[in-house]
Structures are given as C-alpha cells and as structure tokens.
Specification:
Number of helices: 11
Low-confidence stretches: none
Distance between the termini: 24 Å
Pfam families: ABC2_membrane (PF01061)
Radius of gyration: 19 Å
Protein name: Transport permease protein
Largest sheet: none
Subcellular location: Cell membrane; Membrane
Domain ABC transmembrane type-2: 28-254
Order of helices and strands: HHHHHHHHHHH
Structural class: mainly alpha
Strand content: under 5%
Helix content: over 70%
Membrane topology: Multi-pass membrane protein
Length: 256
C-alpha cells in the first residue's frame, strides 16, 4: 500500500511539473488571467467607485475579494483547455500506456490550476496595494483567506475538468467559465445586496459567491465573521465533492 501511494505521488509530481513547464513557457496565460480582473478593478475604483455607496471610504478594500474570485474563475478555463488538448491529441492515452498511476494525469492538471491561480492572485493583490488596498488582517486571517481561495479554486477546477473531458471543441471546453465569471456581478462583490431589486437580491444573497466574498472581506478587514465563513466552506467543499465525482466519471470514460 505504501509503495502504491509513493508511486502515485511521484507520478503526480511529474505531471504537475509537465503542466507547470507549459505555463512557464507561455506566461501569457497568467498575464491574460490577471489583466481582466485588474482592468475591472481600475474601472470600478477610478470610474464607478465615487458613485457606489458601500459604507466604506476605501472602495478597493471592498472590491478586492470579488476581483480575486473573478481572476480564479477566468484562470480555470485554461485547465479545461489544456485537458481538452491532452484528450484530443491522444496524450492521455499515451500516458496510460505507461506504468504510471492513471489518476496522476488528472491530478497534475488540478494542482497546476491551484499553483497558477495562486500566482495570479498574488499579482492582483500587489496591484491592489498600489491602488491603496490596506488590510489589518493578521497572519492567521491571511492563511484563512488563502484556504478559502484554494477551496474555491479546487471547486471550480473540478468543474473545469468535467468541461475539458466532455467537450467536443476547444470553444466548448472554455465556454463554461463565462457564467461563473458573471456570478460575482450578481453578488455583494461590487455593491451591497440591499441596493438590488428583491428578486435579484434573493438570488445574490443565496448564491455561493456572496458568502465567499463576505467571509474574505471580513477576514481582511478584521470584522466579525458570523456564519459566512462556514457557509462559504460548505459551498466550496460541496461543489468540490460533486464536481470531483462527475469529473472522475468522465475521466474513466477516457481511460477505458
């Protein structure tokens, strides 16, 4: 059993290294993921920020959690794209003809998504600092923020895996991410939900992005967390489990 586990982890590290080399050779992937969220941040802070009432003097502090989620939602589309290419080119079948753990190929893509999105998040936070973002959060609060973002990334990455393994075209593999990118706009990421019409407000307050945004915002500002952090964790873990089961089902169809 121990040998099998070591075999899996060593194979997974090789697959992770392979995927990361592809990204490092094409840094435009990370740059592209960062550009749109930073552009949104610039637009909302310097163009719309003065007209939006959030109850805070520093709008970039209010805005940043939602921007980070948009960045992650944009980044996971590349996971679906890379998986689709591996499937289309027969690379998955080639790896499975070798004496390696079969699931290591898929896990390599998943971990690559976590690492690459983490890099994008750091770049965006640095940009926010230049724009005036300030946080009173301690080390534990920052670690909690990192944990929530990793859970969110895993949840979306497993959804991306389903799309990449099931899509019939490159466009189909990445198109799934558009509704996910749009979700933060119908949440408390940019404006308080109290300002929304009743039907929109009901949706905004009961979708996962709002609880995740509120939990991150409270952690970064040193405010009481309430139930938001637990709701956020339940959403992320629940989506991860369901998406993982469907992704593994789709993956097993590729390895028969």
């Amino acid at each position: 059993m121990e040998t099998a586990k070591n075999h899996f982890f060593s194979d997974m590290s090789v697959m992770l290294g392979r995927s990361m080399r592809h990204i490092l050779r094409s840094m435009d992937t990370i740059i592209t993921v960062c550009i749109m969220p930073i552009a949104f941040m610039l637009l909302f802070v310097y163009v719309f920020g003065g007209a939006i009432q959030t109850g805070t003097d520093n709008y970039v502090n209010y805005l940043l959690p939602g921007i980070l989620l948009i960045a992650i939602a944009s980044g996971i589309s590349y996971t679906a794209y890379r998986l689709f290419l591996d499937k289309q080119r027969g690379i998955i079948e080639r790896f499975h003809s070798m004496p390696i753990a079969r699931s290591a190929v898929l896990w390599g893509h998943v971990l690559t998504s976590v690492v690459s999105n983490a890099i994008s998040v750091v770049v965006i936070i640095l940009a926010a600092l230049i724009m005036g973002f300030r946080s009173s959060a301690g080390v534990l609060s920052w670690l909690a923020v990192a944990g929530i973002l990793i859970l969110f990334t895993l949840a979306l990455t497993w959804i991306a895996a389903i799309a990449g393994l099931s899509a019939k075209s490159v466009e189909g593999a990445s198109a799934f991410s558009y509704p996910i990118i749009f979700l933060p706009f119908i949440s408390s990421a940019f404006v308080p939900t109290e300002s929304m019409p009743s039907i929109v407000r009901a949706f905004a307050e009961n979708q996962p992005v709002t609880s995740i945004v509120e939990a991150i915002r409270a952690l970064l500002s040193g405010q009481p967390l309430g139930n938001d952090i637990w709701i956020a964790i339940v959403w992320c873990v629940g989506i991860t489990i369901v998406a993982y089961l469907f992704a593994m089902r789709a993956y097993k169809k590729q390895v028969r």
